[in-house]
Design goal:
The chain is mainly alpha-helical. It contains 12 helices and no strands. The protein has 2 domains: about 10-90, Homeodomain-like (Arc Repressor Mutant, subunit A, Orthogonal Bundle); about 100-255, Tetracycline Repressor, domain 2 (Orthogonal Bundle). The longest helix has about 30 residues, at about 160-190.
Length: about 260
C-alpha cells in the first residue's frame, strides 16, 4: 500500500479550500470570467457519488459532468484526495448540529440521540460515506462541528477533560460504524435487488443440513427461545439502540 505524504504547501491549500476560502477562483485568463467554483465542483461530485458510488466520482467524470476539461479541475482542486475531503466535510455539515449558543435538547442523552439521528440520516442520503476513511479526517467545518457538539454535550456533565474526549470518541465511533453498516446493507440491496431477509431465506437450507448444533449450543438455544425472530432490519435497529443506551448508561453511572 502506498502512503501519501503531502507537503506543507499542499496541506495549507487543502485547508484553505475547506475553510470557506474554497469559493475563490483560480485566476482566469485576461478578459475571461471564471467558469467554475469549488463549491459547484463538490456539489457535482457528491451527486455522482450518490447515484453511482464513490469510485465513479473521478476527476475525469466530474469534469465531464461540468462540461470542462479534466485539467481545468486541477486549477480549482489539487486532486481526488482533496476533492474527497471536501465532499465528506460538505455532507457532514448537512447535519446542521446546534453550535455554541444555539438551542438544543435540554437533556444530555437527547442531545446525543440528536447527533445519532442526524449522522445516520447523512449516511442514508450519502451511502458512499461508508467508503471514506475517518481515521485521518479532513479538518473542515463539517467534521469539527460534529466534534464540538459531542464534546460540549459531554463537557456539560462535569467529567474530566480526558473522560470527555474518551466518551465522545466512544460514542462517535459507535454511531459512525453502525451508520456505515446500515449504509452498506442499503447499498447491497440496491445493487443486488435482494433484501437482507431474502438473502437469509435463500440460505435457510444451511440450518437444516449443515448447522452443527453440538458445536453451537448457545446459538441453538437462543434460536429456540425466539432470539432470532426479528427481521434483519429490526434486529439491527434493536442491537443499535441497545448498544447506544448501554454506552449512555455507563457514562451516566460514571457521572453519578
Amino acid at each position: 500500500m502506498t502512503v501519501e505524504h503531502n507537503g506543507a504547501e499542499d496541506i495549507d491549500r487543502a485547508l484553505a479550500l475547506l475553510w470557506h476560502v474554497r469559493e475563490q477562483h483560480s485566476e482566469p485568463a485576461r478578459g475571461r470570467r471564471p467558469r467554475l467554483a469549488v463549491g459547484r465542483i463538490v456539489e457535482v461530485a457528491i451527486g455522482v457519488a450518490d447515484a453511482e458510488g464513490l469510485v465513479a466520482a473521478s476527476m475525469h467524470r466530474v469534469a465531464k459532468e461540468l462540461g470542462a476539461g479534466t485539467m481545468t479541475l486541477y486549477t480549482y482542486v489539487p486532486g481526488k484526495a482533496e476533492l474527497l475531503d471536501l465532499m465528506v466535510d460538505q455532507v457532514l455539515a448537512e447535519r446542521l448540529l446546534p453550535g455554541p449558543g444555539d438551542e438544543r435538547p435540554a437533556d444530555w442523552r437527547a442531545q446525543v440521540l440528536l447527533y445519532s439521528d442526524r449522522t445516520r440520516e447523512t449516511y442514508r442520503r450519502h451511502p458512499w460515506l461508508r467508503e471514506a476513511s475517518r481515521v485521518r479526517p479532513a479538518l473542515g467545518p463539517g467534521h469539527l462541528a460534529g466534534q464540538e457538539y459531542l464534546l460540549s454535550t459531554l463537557d456539560s456533565l462535569g467529567l474530566g477533560a480526558a473522560q470527555v474526549t474518551a466518551a465522545a470518541g466512544a460514542l462517535g465511533t459507535y454511531i459512525d460504524a453502525n451508520a456505515a453498516l446500515e449504509a452498506e446493507s442499503a447499498h447491497l440491496e440496491r445493487v443486488t435487488g435482494q433484501s437482507d431477509d431474502a438473502w437469509w431465506d435463500q440460505r435457510s437450507v444451511f440450518w437444516h443440513r449443515y448447522f452443527p448444533v453440538d458445536r453451537h449450543p448457545t446459538m441453538a438455544r437462543v434460536w429456540e427461545n425466539g432470539g432470532f425472530v426479528l427481521t434483519a432490519a429490526e434486529q439491527a435497529a434493536q442491537a443499535y439502540d441497545f448498544g447506544l443506551n448501554r454506552l449512555l448508561d455507563g457514562i451516566e453511572e460514571l457521572v453519578a
